[in-house]
């Protein structure tokens, strides 16, 4: 347990040095270049809010993964390996029970992952619709200001 905490600390010290921020910056720059190359047909078919929301959320998720999750995954794998070694050294029957339960554990996490991805996709779609709604509202507000309605609105 102590060894896994030390490994998380060491891995997080190396990752918090800006690796996640560098990855996010590089991704944003490459995505911006790709958006410039995409045809206007794609942008007209999809609302700007949905495109921007998906890009921003995906970049933030990748940044978080690179910054934090890699060290956590490393610590979890290390913990499982250490537990298996200690159980094998302690009792063979107990290690067989553990090795039978481990696939059940993996299957349960897989099912939770599939369900959470479905919820995440629904959340992304809803957030994209909300962003496109706000974008339309802001563009309508700007058109009112351009047409001179700004003077008739009293603060």
TrEMBL record:
Organism name: Methanobrevibacter millerae
Domain ABC transmembrane type-1: 1-140
Membrane topology, record value: Multi-pass membrane protein
Keywords: ATP-binding, Membrane, Nucleotide-binding, Transmembrane, Transmembrane helix
Domain of life of the native organism: Archaea
Keyword field contains ATP-binding: yes
TM region positions: 70-89, 95-112
Protein name stated in the entry: ABC transporter ATP-binding protein
Main location: membrane
GO molecular function: ABC-type transporter activity; ATP binding; ATPase-coupled lipid transmembrane transporter activity
InterPro entries documented for this protein: ABC1_TM_dom, ABC1_TM_sf, Type_1_exporter
Alphabetized Pfam families for the sequence: ABC_membrane
Compartment annotation: Membrane
CC annotations in GO: membrane
């Amino acid at each position: 347990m102590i060894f896994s905490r030390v490994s998380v600390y060491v891995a997080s010290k190396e990752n918090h040095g800006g690796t996640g921020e560098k990855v996010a910056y590089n991704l944003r720059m490459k995505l911006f270049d790709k958006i410039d190359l995409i045809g206007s047909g794609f942008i007209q078919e999809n609302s700007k809010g949905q495109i921007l929301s998906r890009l921003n959320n995906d970049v933030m998720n990748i940044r978080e993964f690179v910054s934090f999750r890699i060290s956590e995954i490393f610590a979890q794998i290390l913990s499982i390996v250490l537990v298996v070694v200690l159980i094998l050294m302690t009792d063979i029957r107990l290690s067989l029970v553990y090795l039978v339960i481990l696939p059940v554990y993996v299957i349960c996490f897989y099912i939770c992952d599939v369900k959470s991805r479905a919820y995440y996709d629904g959340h992304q779609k809803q957030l994209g619709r909300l962003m496109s709604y706000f974008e339309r509202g802001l563009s309508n507000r700007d058109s009112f200001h351009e047409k001179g309605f700004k003077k008739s609105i009293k603060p």
